[in-house]
């Protein structure tokens, strides 16, 4: 590569320019000879213009040749011979004729014509020899460059062939030693990933690859054990879920039947205790009147509790003909039902325009009845209730919020309040059975939604629940779980 570069530089930077400037030197001297001869024949000084230009070109060509041939001994010798003859021609013929007056130049040119021609012919022969030498040197350099280029190309071809051969050998070695075993490892790993967990991992190839295969095989074994354990757990969970579903169904059936069957004896107890109170009230001592009052109150509370329990057990069992329900109308009816307690408490209720949903109108009415009545019931004594109903859409769900400025619910009880019969206060402070929020949770989940207490709201209570925007399989699944 270096040799080729050197030869290229020598040819381009020295040999070819040297020959070019030798030709320019000859042209410059020929122009001078033509100009002097024309002046000698005509006596007109305008014929000396080529001579003057030739002198300038001669000097430039000689200077350039001196630089180009400084490392060429023969070339400098040929140049010296040309310069010596050119100087002789200038001194004896060109300069005297060019400087001669016009009236004498013709006779002077005639007297020296033969000698001048002979001298310039010798100069021509010297320049021919110089150009022949330089042309041969350029041809030799070009030939040497071609040989070097051919050698370089063959060398590169040999190197490329050697590299290709080495690459082929390396590739084959990699294929046999690494790629093949790695591909087999990948194939068996993909089979395992595709579900064939009983397929053992291929362990072949170099030590590192065998270690990798061993690690993957260990992972497969652990995964197989985990899958077996998971399958056993799934079967056990399915059995437990089936037992739980059956137990819940039996429990709901029991609650329904029990509450329904308890109605008649309870009505009888309540009727007789009330009759006893009316007939004998004030006729017995004070303690007897108190006992009778306790019995009447207990019977009444039992009646309310059984009614609530019966309503709770009916969620998901009756009134499950789902249709489009206008919540605006449902909440309007609920507020009409609560108008007395709302007026007595001085409650201020604001609400967003409510959408329509697909569901059971009766159960959704129970949901809003419990939420709004709770907001009125659990109010502070030092302020009037402020209740807000808001709604926003979150993708495929409507998110509702019922917010009040009441007594609030402590964080540790915000999940327990949705458990049936869970009470946080005495009956004397706030009447009720503790079924309201449990019923709300059951209604919301039956309709495919969720319900919670917002823990970030601390100025009272905010109950947030969701309902599907459209009828979906989620609601169907929730209803099936309750039936």
Would you mind describing this structure in some detail?
By secondary structure, the protein is an alpha+beta fold. Among the domains are: 2-159, Four Helix Bundle (Hemerythrin (Met), subunit A); 319-482, Histidine kinase-like ATPase, C-terminal domain (Heat Shock Protein 90), CATH 3.30.565. 70% of the residues lie in helices and 8% in strands. It is built from 11 helices and 7 strands. The protein has helices spanning 2-42, 49-68, 73-99, 102-193, 207-280, 286-314, 327-337, 339-345, 361-377, 436-446, 473-482, and strands spanning 323-326, 348-351, 356-359, 386-394, 397-404, 451-453, 461-468. The protein has a 5-stranded mixed sheet. β4 and β5 form a beta hairpin. α1 (2-42) packs parallel to α3 (73-99). Mean pLDDT is 80; it is low at 472-483.
């Amino acid at each position: 590569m270096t040799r080729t570069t050197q030869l290229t530089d020598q040819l381009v930077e020295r040999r070819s320019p040297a020959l070019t400037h030798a030709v320019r030197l000859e042209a410059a001297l020929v122009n001078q000879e033509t100009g002097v001869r024309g002046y000698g024949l005509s006596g007109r000084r305008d014929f000396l213009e080529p001579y003057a230009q030739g002198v300038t070109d001669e000097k430039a060509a000689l200077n350039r040749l001196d630089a180009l041939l400084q490392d060429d001994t023969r070339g400098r010798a040929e140049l010296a011979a040309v310069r010596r003859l050119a100087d002789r021609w200038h001194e004896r013929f060109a300069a005297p004729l060019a400087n001669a007056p016009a009236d004498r130049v013709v006779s002077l040119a005639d007297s020296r014509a033969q000698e001048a021609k002979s001298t310039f012919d010798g100069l021509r022969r010297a320049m021919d020899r110089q150009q022949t030498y330089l042309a041969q040197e350029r041809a030799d350099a070009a030939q040497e460059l071609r040989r070097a280029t051919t050698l370089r190309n063959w060398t590169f071809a040999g190197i490329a062939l050697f590299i290709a051969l080495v690459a082929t050998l390396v590739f084959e070695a990699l294929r046999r030693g690494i790629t093949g075993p790695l591909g087999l490892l990948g194939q068996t790993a993909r089979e395992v990933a595709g579900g064939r967990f009983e397929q053992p991992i291929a362990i072949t190839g170099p030590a590192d690859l065998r270690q990798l295969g061993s690690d993957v095989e260990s992972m497969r074994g652990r995964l197989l054990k985990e899958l077996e354990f998971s399958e056993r757990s799934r079967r056990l969970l399915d059995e437990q879920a089936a037992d739980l579903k059956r137990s819940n169904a039996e429990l709901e059936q029991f609650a329904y039947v029990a509450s329904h069957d308890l109605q008649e004896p309870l009505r009888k107890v309540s009727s007789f205790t009330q009759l006893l109170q009316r007939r004998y009230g004030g006729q017995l001592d004070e303690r007897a009147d108190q006992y009778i009052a306790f019995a009447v109150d207990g019977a009444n509370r039992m009646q309310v509790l059984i009614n609530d329990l019966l309503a709770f057990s009916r969620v998901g069992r009756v009134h499950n003909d789902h249709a489009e329900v206008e919540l605006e109308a449902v909440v309007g009816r609920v507020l009409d039902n609560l108008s007395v307690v709302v007026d007595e408490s001085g409650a201020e209720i604001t609400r967003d325009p409510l959408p329509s949903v697909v569901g059971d109108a009766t159960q959704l009415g129970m949901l809003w009845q419990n939420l709004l009545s709770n907001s009125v019931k659990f109010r502070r004594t030092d302020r009037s209730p402020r209740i807000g109903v808001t709604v926003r859409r979150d993708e495929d769900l409507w998110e509702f919020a019922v917010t009040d400025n009441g007594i609030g619910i402590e964080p540790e009880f915000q999940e327990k309040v949705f458990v049936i019969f869970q009470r946080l206060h005495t009956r004397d402070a706030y009447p009720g059975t503790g079924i309201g929020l449990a019923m709300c949770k059951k209604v919301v989940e039956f309709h495919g939604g969720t319900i919670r207490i917002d823990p970030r709201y601390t100025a009272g209570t905010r109950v947030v629940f969701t309902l599907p925007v459209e009828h979906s399989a989620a609601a169907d699944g929730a209803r099936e779980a309750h039936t």
